[in-house]
Amino acid sequence: MRGPSRRLLLAPVTITATKPLLPTHVKGFLWVDTLFRSTRLVRDLEYYWNPRAANLTGQTIQFWDHLDRRHPDLDHDTLSVEDLGHLYVRFHASGDARPMDRLRHYTERVEREGWVHPSTRAATRDWQRQLGLLGVHDPGLTADRPAAASIDETVELLVRRHLCVDHRGHGGPAYLDGTRWGMPLRPVIGADGHANYLLVILRDLLPRLTEGDQVLLVYDDDLAHDYALLARVLGELGARPSRLPLGRVPIGRAARSSRYGGWDGHSLGQLAELCLREFDPAGYRLGMRLYFIAMLKRTATEPFRADLLRRAMRRAARMLDETGGAGVPGGDGEASETDKAGDGDDLPSYLSGFAAPAGWIDPYRLTDGLFARRPSSALLRQVYL
């Protein structure tokens, strides 16, 4: 690593398109999108998303193998993403996962050529359509980005810095070693030779960082222990990490992974269909952000509520009416009153007032502020729509 830098690398946890986008995923995408679009107006920012990180995980590879063995005749181009999600749920309940040392042909193909299973390719296309309708910046859902370093190169670097215990030479696993910070050893390569998502992230991030780079890690609250360790490792290697954990959005009384089911009727496509029957695309985009960012806040303590989402949609429609359409497609009004939040050339200065200590714009504080003060069309257009 070399030289000081003021760059901020935005690195959210990646998810694999093996199911529809659900409220927890939507929340994550909207928080990151709002953070990205606002922060890039005030500082140098890189949004890094690598599909291979999720495609190399055991649960993804094992699901692909399950589909190929148990459902070889599926037409992935006509299968709905909701139906794929139901297959994903049934797979996790079936106990049909084969050991990873028998599935190396999948991981090798992903590593070698960036191969993606037809089911995930089809689901990713659905994600792109839904996120495009929602106005979310595509971080590279279909990009082919080889990891910047190999497994062996990354482990060797970590071992040199006393951050890894490597037992592979004796037929055992490799561990991230955070014991100096009172953290337990964390397996990153199993005895079967398969590397988990933490090592994939390190393979990608470490070679891209220069001394003093700031890194913002965004992840599910459930992964807090892993990401606390990851931040320590990145800091030890010269980066300046900060963390933004997001709580899951419960459906009913359950705040759990999509693999357990219980999400029927709550996919992003189904929510969009309901909202767009009554509200226009701009109102849909803004209303979804008001609900998932400002109303649910960082940690979701109550389940998804369609009535509150509709309330957010109505509030968004009023905001857009007040700003004459906010200058988005379909609206021809422009804000001119100086008392509007984030008006005109003052937008970067206005946004800077919502910066977290690490220099990124806090999506909650910014979005919550829309309820208190009439937003400008510039703010809505450049950050929310």
TrEMBL record:
It comes from the Bacteria. Residues 324-333 have a biased composition (Gly residues). Residues 322-342 are annotated as: Disordered. It comes from Nonomuraea maheshkhaliensis. This is Uncharacterized protein.
